[in-house]
User: Which sequence fits this backbone?
């Protein structure tokens, strides 16, 4: 509990939100990079199917995603059974792990799309030239692709992180509002509004507003700075 | 000649439209999530009998209340407790003298895994389950009573870490109905509804009404709807024997 403008606000939901967002960003950059690379270099027309699949969370109401995940993550369902096989003992619904998994789906386009566009802009000629000089795939990736796609990575990381912080529908559906485990900021604000604690709702909402504004300015700043350099 | 004809036609149309409006009006009513099914059935009967049309907006009582406070276009409000409906009168959005209790909710302990019908307290005491679902006690009256009940029985400390909260009783119900929580405190009305996904599946135990403060659900006419004949007719209809029968068949008691 801390006091801001004379209003007592619990910080737990904020730390939890940052933790979930950080994990989601880390996992999505890890998984999203090869996926985005593969999609960027894809020539076949089936690419549109992949692109559409990746973009789905942008247009689907989060409640749809949350509802499906609630069904799929059922403790007696196949997914949980499958994970048990590998020694997983928990439950995906009502847990931080479940929220992170849900967020990975929910924020997928925010990581993959900027990365894909960045990778698409890497000239094939450069890679071919490097290949003639016996640079292997990893060499080429770390010495050519990565430096040229800096902006894409920065934008992907920032947007993924921010989007996860602002997540509501999926958390509401999957979370169960457990303090320290699944009560994220958006849910906390919702509860304050529901129980007519408008002061707390105001403080937290203002914090979210300022945070989002800063993040977006950061994204546009990155775009501008690197945009000028490259263009 | 042509002009007189058009004027006459226009006059007739205006008359028809306005008389139609006087006969059948439309009312928009905010309703607590737990009463969704019941009020839909009552509303169908009402429309059949009177011709008035009803539009329902369902949600957690607290959210509906906040919306009303901020000017939501509702003509009447059916809350899940007494507090919020009464508070609208205090705030000046509700009409004085129109408040009444339309139903009294009952809490039930439901499970598709544990013998809650025979040994409800033993099941709660052993607490062998990973999660137990409840409505959020801060925002939902059903949740508040359920929490007060387990506290009164001295079971709260054993259950505390296992409680998952739905935002409304409808939300808590989803956790149980989808199998994510094997046990939960939900509304009796959600179990006895023949269309409920858990109807006749699993078992339930009705928590004795003497063990928790009654969940009186209050309704009130809002300022926006005070001249709406559909609203007035519906508020009367809800208290008629026909509606009371429907309300009771959905697992509520009536005052």
Assistant:
């Amino acid at each position: 509990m801390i006091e801001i403008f004379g209003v007592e606000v619990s910080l737990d939901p904020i730390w939890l939100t940052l933790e979930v967002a950080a994990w989601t960003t880390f996992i999505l950059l890890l998984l999203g990079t090869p996926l985005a690379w593969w999609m960027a270099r894809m020539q076949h027309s089936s690419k549109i199917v992949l692109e559409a699949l990746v973009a789905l969370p942008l247009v689907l109401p989060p409640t749809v995603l949350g509802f499906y995940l609630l069904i799929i993550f059922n403790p007696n369902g196949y997914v949980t059974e499958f994970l048990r096989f590998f020694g997983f003992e928990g439950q995906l619904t009502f847990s931080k792990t479940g929220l992170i998994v849900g967020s990975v789906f929910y924020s997928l386009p925010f990581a993959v799309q900027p990365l894909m566009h960045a990778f698409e802009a890497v000239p094939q000629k450069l890679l071919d030239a490097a290949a003639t000089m016996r640079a292997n795939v990893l060499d080429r990736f770390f010495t050519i692709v990565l430096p040229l796609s800096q902006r894409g990575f920065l934008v992907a990381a920032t947007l993924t992180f921010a989007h996860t912080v602002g997540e509501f529908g999926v958390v509401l559906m999957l979370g169960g509002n457990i303090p320290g485990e699944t009560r994220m900021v958006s849910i906390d604000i919702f509860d304050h509004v529901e129980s007519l604690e408008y002061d707390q709702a105001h403080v937290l909402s203002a914090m979210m507003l300022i945070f989002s504004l800063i993040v977006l300015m950061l994204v546009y700043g990155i775009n501008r700075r690197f945009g000028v350099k490259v263009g | 000649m042509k002009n007189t004809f058009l004027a006459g036609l226009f006059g007739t149309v205006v008359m028809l439209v306005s008389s139609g409006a006087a006969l059948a009006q439309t009312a928009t009513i905010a309703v607590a999530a737990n009463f969704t099914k019941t009020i839909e059935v009552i509303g169908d009967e009402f429309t059949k009998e009177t011709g008035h049309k009803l539009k329902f907006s369902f949600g957690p009582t607290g959210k509906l209340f906040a919306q009303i406070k901020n000017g939501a276009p509702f003509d009447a409000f059916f809350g899940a407790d007494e507090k919020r409906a009464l508070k609208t009168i205090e705030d000046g959005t509700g009409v004085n003298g129109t408040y009444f209790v339309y139903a009294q909710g009952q809490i039930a302990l439901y499970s598709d895994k544990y013998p809650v019908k025979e040994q409800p307290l033993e099941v709660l005491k052993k607490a062998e389950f990973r999660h137990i679902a409840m409505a959020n006690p801060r925002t939902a009256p059903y949740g508040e009573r359920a929490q007060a009940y387990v506290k009164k029985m001295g079971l709260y400390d054993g259950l505390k870490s296992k409680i998952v909260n739905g935002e409304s009783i409808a939300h808590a119900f989803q956790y149980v109905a989808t199998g994510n929580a094997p046990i939960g405190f939900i509304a009796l009305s959600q179990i006895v509804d023949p269309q409920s996904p858990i109807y006749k599946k699993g078992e339930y135990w009705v928590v004795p009404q003497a063990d928790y403060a009654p969940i009186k659900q209050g309704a009130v006419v809002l300022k926006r709807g005070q001249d709406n004949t559909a609203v007035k007719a519906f508020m009367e209809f809800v208290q008629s024997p026909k509606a009371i029968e429907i309300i009771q068949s959905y697992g509520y008691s009536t005052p």
